[in-house]
Amino acid sequence: MIDDLKLIRPGEVRVRVAPSPTGPLHIGVTRTALFNYLFAKKYQGSFILRIEDTDVERSKKEWEEDVIEGLKWLGIEWQEGPDIGGQYGPYRQSGRGEIYQKYIQKLLDEKKIYYCFCSKEELEAHRNYQMSIGEPPRYSGKCRDLSPKDLKKNLDAKKSFVLRFKTPFRKVGFLDMLRGKIEVETDAFGDMTVAKDLTTPLYNLACIIDDFEMKITHVIRGEDHIPNTPKQILLAEALGIEPPKYLHLPLILGLNKAKLSKRHEARSVLEYKEEGYLPEAIVNFLALLGWNPGTPREIFSMNSLIQEFSIEGLQSGGAMLNPQKLTWINAFYIRQKSPEKLTELCLPYLIESGLVEPFFGQEKYPPAYGGELITQQFKIKETAEEISFNFLKKVVGLYQERLRKLSEIVELTDFFFKKELAYPKELLKWQEYSCKEIKETLDRLKKILARPKPIEWIKENLERILMSEAEKIGDRGKLLWPLRVALTGKKASAGPFEIAEILGKEKTLARIKEARKKL
């Protein structure tokens, strides 16, 4: 099947991703969308978004919006879809009833499907019986050959029904572009339900109709759909239409090697966004879940993925979702950001945490999530002190090398925006020195930094003066440890000279004074 790719002409590929809006966009569907998008781009084809919302009870508009927002945030763009339309719409299954009716009626007229009036209780009882004697559960065929008289009687009585497909009992095979030939005996599933009524097909029938109507050439989806493929091929044969080519991606596994689920590490794409992951990091990470570039390279932009991606590089074995790897990739992309852009991206977290608030004169504006800078003016919320974007840029820049997720900026830098720091006095102590000795050190620091002879308050000058003093003491830690704790209230932070420069002389001296009071 891979050899067939050589015959593809530019522009003829049409692929789709078809999520159900019954919950947030999760990682599995997102990776499927990404691989379809890359495949389409590689062959200058079309990528289509289709919403499979026939599950009326569970489908919600908010989840469709979640899907659209998540994919757009990642830069996965479609040429046809529910939000932009296209030649082969509607792109929501709920709006395609008339299209489905034509095909369902054709199958009824040709006696390839039939009405089934069996109750749920009957079906469940028969299912339990089959399982008790070691047989695979499948429909008994009770309604397969109802007489016209009984059929009319049931329909006139408005008895509830479903429509079942008369499954031919034989082997069904297909060539998977990744896995080769796959064959299934149809007696494993029997006469399958294909529609709730004349306008509402179930998944397998709706899927093959939509793929045909939308001229889908290749279906790339998860391997959990392998059992559906023979059923869809049978339905395509019954309708006299050509099915697309199929490729089934490996499952994404959690660290416990079980299929990823909501109970095992699966989160929605927008949850990752809220936590502070960058879209380019998510895309890069997902591309490596089941695809091997054939080199040790691990960093790929979207453009480079479009150039490098190939079906030949896909793997059939399960792909493990390693959160640590994602965080490592995210940290890499954070380090590539300009100081200005990174500050814009971090601002929503500082604002939502209550540390900072934007303002323009007396007018307040809500933060634009995702880094759209709306004002250059800000306040420290606790003290109402006015600060500039440039100040925030210095704060964020100080931690750019340490940030793994944007959300971490709050915990790392909160001390810059607090009037008083809360920390135990024991944290000020360095090794075995007594409180008295640490007090003397803080007094010494205050005296040096408050001397009448002014110095330019920059990191280089502070470092030169204080490092010289630390050398005189003979133990750098005795001077620098309590200074850093006094300024930040933390066990770990950036260097004290850089922090002191950003805080300024007045705040630096005030924090040294407060630290001494603790002792």
- By secondary-structure content and strand pairing, the structural class works out as alpha/beta
Q: In the CATH hierarchy, what is the architecture of the largest domain at level 2?
A: 3-Layer(aba) Sandwich
Fold-level CATH name of the largest domain: Rossmann fold
Total tally of structural domains: 4
Spatial shape: elongated
- Show unreliable segments: 362-371
Helix content: 40-55%
Could you report the average pLDDT, rounded to the nearest whole number?
92
Largest sheet: 3 strands, antiparallel
Global Rg: 32 Å
Strand content: 5-15%
Amino-to-carboxy terminus distance: 75 Å
Tally the helices: 19
The CATH H-level homologous superfamily of the largest domain: HUPs
Spatial strand arrangement across the major sheet? 3-4-7
Under CATH at level 1, the class of the largest domain stands as Alpha Beta
Could you tell me the number of beta strands?
14
Helices and strands, with pairings:
Elements: E1 14-17, H1 27-42, E2 46-49, H2 61-74, H3 97-109, E3 113-116, H4 120-132, H5 148-156, E4 162-165, E5 171-176, E6 180-185, E7 193-195, H6 203-213, E8 218-222, H7 228-239, E9 245-249, E10 252-253, H8 269-275, H9 279-287, H10 302-308, E11 319-320, H11 323-336, H12 339-352, E12 356-358, E13 377-380, E14 386-388, H13 389-398, H14 408-413, H15 435-449, H16 459-473, H17 476-488, H18 496-503, H19 505-518
Parallel strand pairs: 1-2, 8-9, 10-11
Antiparallel strand pairs: 3-4, 4-7, 5-6, 12-13, 13-14
Helix pairs in contact: 6-7, 9-11, 12-13, 15-17, 15-19, 16-17, 16-18, 17-19
